[in-house]
Amino acid sequence: MNNPEMNMKFMQIAMKHLPEGKKFLDAKGIELNMEDLQPMLELLLNVMDEAYELGKSEAVEQPK
């Protein structure tokens, strides 16, 4: 992540949806603690960052 402020916003979004993801994994019989979830959170943050950058570049290319 290049922007610490954006990274914090992404982490807040991820944490908001974490209980839903944990519930899904629990229903599948996959037990993970927060230490186990950390690599997945990092992956999710990377995806969110790339999606943000893609949207940002498209917005610059196609001004309203």
What does this structure look like?
The protein has 64 residues and is an all-alpha fold. It has one domain (4-58). Helices cover 81% and strands 0% of the residues. The protein is built from two helices and no strands. It has helices at 4-27, 34-61. Helix 1 (4-27) packs across helix 2. The radius of gyration is 15 Å and the shape is elongated. The model has no long low-confidence stretch (mean pLDDT 87).
Largest sheet: none
The SSE string, one letter per element, is HH
Regarding quaternary structure, what we see is single chain
What count of domains describes the coordinates?
1
- Indicate the overall shape: elongated
Helical residues, percent? over 70%
Question: Pairing-aware structural class of the strands and helices?
Answer: mainly alpha
Overall residue-averaged pLDDT value: 87
Number of beta strands: 0
In short:
This protein has helices at 4-27, 34-61. It is an all-alpha fold. The relative contact order is 0.14.
Keywords:
mainly alpha, ComZ, 64 residues, single chain, 2 helices
Outline the secondary-structure elements.
Blueprint: H1 4-27, H2 34-61
